């Protein structure tokens, strides 16, 4: 997905979710909304000449994504972001120190549980067919959920 597409996706998604939810959104901590909007795994603008300069860590104190060469954040509270099937995920164990991750679908990645930051893109007509499936679909975006007691496919769907 190109950056423009991703932005468009976010705008569409937000516009849809915004109705009647303003209060809830204001309560949401700023770093969390920054986390959900950060484009990870793009090259760090401060370290373009270095290898392994992809932004794959998020600084909670500064509300921004950074790379392993950005030493300013070494003493800050941070979150390691991982890639799973082209999507940004975070280890459940790390994330639940900061927010309540219950009822969010988890995935086993290298033996550890992880949760998606944002819902995975889905085909336009997928939603209707998802809805007709019994039981588990995300309460926010309608995406099919693997494990029925869960109610959300991603952190974004739970907090928005
Ligand atoms: Zn950097
Ligand atoms: Zn920082
Ligand atoms: Zn969802």
UniProtKB/TrEMBL annotation:
Protein's recorded name: Protein POLLEN DEFECTIVE IN GUIDANCE 1-like
InterPro entries: PLATZ
Origin superkingdom: Eukaryota
PANTHER family cross-referenced by the UniProt entry: PLATZ TRANSCRIPTION FACTOR FAMILY PROTEIN
């Amino acid at each position: 997905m190109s950056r423009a597409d991703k932005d468009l996706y976010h705008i569409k998604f937000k516009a849809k979710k915004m109705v009647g939810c303003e209060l809830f959104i204001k309560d949401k901590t700023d770093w969390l909304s920054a986390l959900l909007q950060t484009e990870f795994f793009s090259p760090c603008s401060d370290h373009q000449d270095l290898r392994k300069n992809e932004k794959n860590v998020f600084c909670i104190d500064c509300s921004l994504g950074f790379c392993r060469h950005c030493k300013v954040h070494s003493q800050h509270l941070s979150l390691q972001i991982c890639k799973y099937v082209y999507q940004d995920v975070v280890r459940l164990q790390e994330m639940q120190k900061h927010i309540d991750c219950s009822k969010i679908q988890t995935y086993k990645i290298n033996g550890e549980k992880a949760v998606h930051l944002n819902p995975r893109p889905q085909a336009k007509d997928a939603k209707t067919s998802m809805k007709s499936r019994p039981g588990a679909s995300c309460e926010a975006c309608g995406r099919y959920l693997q494990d029925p007691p869960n109610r959300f496919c991603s952190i974004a769907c739970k907090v928005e």
